[in-house]
Amino acid sequence: MSHMTYPEAMVVGLIQGVTELFPVSSLGHNVLIPALVGGSWAADLNVAAPESPYLAFIVGLHVATAIALMIYFWRDWVRIIGGFFSSIKNRELETTDQKMAWMIIFATIPVGLVGLVFEHEFRVLFGKPIRAAIFLVINGLILYAGERFRTRKSLRADGELSRERELAEVAAGGGPATPSASSVPPGPGSHASGHRAVRQQEIYEGMQADDRLASMGFVQAVVIGCAQCLALLAGISRDGVTMVAGMFRGLSRVDAARFAFLLATPVILAAGVLKTGDLIQKGHGIYGQILVGSILSGIGAYVSVRFLVRYFQTRTLTPFAIYCVVFGLGSIIYLSVR
Fold this sequence. Notes:
This protein is mostly helical. It has one domain. The chain has 16 helices and no strands. Helix 4 (53-60) packs across helix 14 (253-282) and helix 14 packs antiparallel against helix 15 (287-314). The longest helix is centred in the first third of the chain and has 31 residues, at 96-126. The radius of gyration is 21 Å and the shape is globular. The two termini are 26 Å apart. Mean pLDDT is 87; it is low at 178-187.
């Protein structure tokens, strides 16, 4: 770990932030890329080494990723956390925010338990480059199957949301679809106002999505949450398999993506916090690299979630599926013949 360079830390940090939210597996990329580059990268950044300090580094970067997610969804988390405390105070489970809080808690328990017990074994056993490449191909096939064999309920949910957006755009004259968004006055700061309008629209759509998610029930939420356990395998994307599970249970693509991002936040944060002690203990001499990697990880995560929230409103998982299969197969071939 003492040999980690700034370029290595910067690349790993940026990859962690971006690929943690894109459905292409951050751990798979952080295992594969050093092996593909070779040389000192392969020696310094070996996640499968016993008690790997590199593993502590990349998992420690999860804190920055989680912070970025909380910044983007901070209004949602204020509502959801408020719903948690109000449900305890009033001993009720009536509002959307109350239901969402407990759905996230119950859906997080399975991966939390599995991660605490088997995380190290899974990382060491399956954190080897060739195995990560194989699971990356499997991840691509899962994403493709999720789109190819979607349930009629999920497709119908997508169609209904699409029609609602079209009607809202027509009613607003092609502009923002909510009164709060359209009330932003134009002027010298019209660019900033336009950004605020878009953000307000996203917040409004998020609240509507939570209403729909809260109606699916706790059993469905736990089933979807269990899919996160597969992300302990390097090459399998947490958000990807969670989205596929959500669509399989009848969610629209955009609702499945939102639930995946909300579920990921406490898991990513907890994983990072648990590794922070190891990172501090084994990171002597590279605290600068850790800081730079964390900053880039947070920036990458924030930009990614902003992009993906809009992307999944109209686009599919298929491009990511193709990427995973091609990159995974290419990595298998390269690692086998070099």
